[in-house]
Design brief:
13 helices; 0% strand; mainly alpha; repeat; 68% helix; antiporter activity; globular
Length: 360
Amino acid sequence: MSSLLKPFSVCEGPCESCGVRRGYPSSAAHQQQPPFQRLTAAAGLGSLPAHQRSYAARRNLAAAAVGGRKMTHPGKAILAGGIAGGIEICITFPTEYVKTQLQLDERANPPRYRGIGDCVKLTVQDHGLRGLYRGLSSLLYGSIPKSAVRFGTFEMLSNPMRDATGRLDNTRSLLCGLGAGIAEAIVVVCPMETLKVKMIHDQCSLRPRYRGFFHGVSEIIREQGVRGTYQGLTATVLKQGTNQAIRFYVMNLLRNWYKGDDPRREMHPIVTAMFGATAGAASVFGNTPLDVVKTRMQGLEAHRYKNTMDCAFQILKHEGPQAFYKGTVPRLGRVCLDVAIVFVIYEEVVKLLNNVWKTQ
């Protein structure tokens, strides 16, 4: 009876001693556990088998990211990336055309163009405004799956690496971007870029051979086999891998800086565009030499080079180191616009898909 008269207190939250008696860890021990184990214990998943516990914890981790940048389902990333890539290339193709023309205008031969303006002027004089869009079909057919593979792979790699708020650290974003670039290079970029360069180069000749995209593809495969569409694979993998590693790293770095300690802070499309343009500029200055080598390896004169290293050596020997930065200015304008547009459209399409496509 006397025990009933003893004073008692009510504490906020679960009783620690009661939790210990029931088999739960004390708060001190709980704080020392890694975040993944704390999430597992808090969800009551400790009794599940290891593979089920890991899967359930990842789902809870995704749910925990509501306060920050939500994890994007790879399916949404593929769809949003494809849409963004298709719109972007229709806007920026003329700058890609000029860049490729200047890179193919080798110093060893009498230069045909005196600069960007002269290239645009002569192209319009010879072929009209439509001449600036020659070769668009091959790049359009490649741009949609390229962006789809890029963003789908990035989200697939980065989702398991995010913390409980959905934040991705900068080092991991670099690695995920590298993986996304390598994937898009092998699956899409190398064959499609090879076709694009060959068709643009063919249109510059006195007697063009290819009557269109599909005719050009059939002729190239008939003469050179499927291997003919994978010329310059090493240079393409190096270029795309470093490209996306730099872009996703810079974009993630700026995003984390902008949001600071508030993962819920929304990014306006203008801010996203500015960050995307900055990431694009960084990638241009970082790997334009690889882009020049890749373009030479995929042109109609690719047979002059034994391999990627020989191509780089020949350019350095006959044209000097400045040749590795031919076409930088038109590429800078195109890439900054390209990356800004792609990231803005991608983020907006993902937001739209989140409203109509509910995923875990």
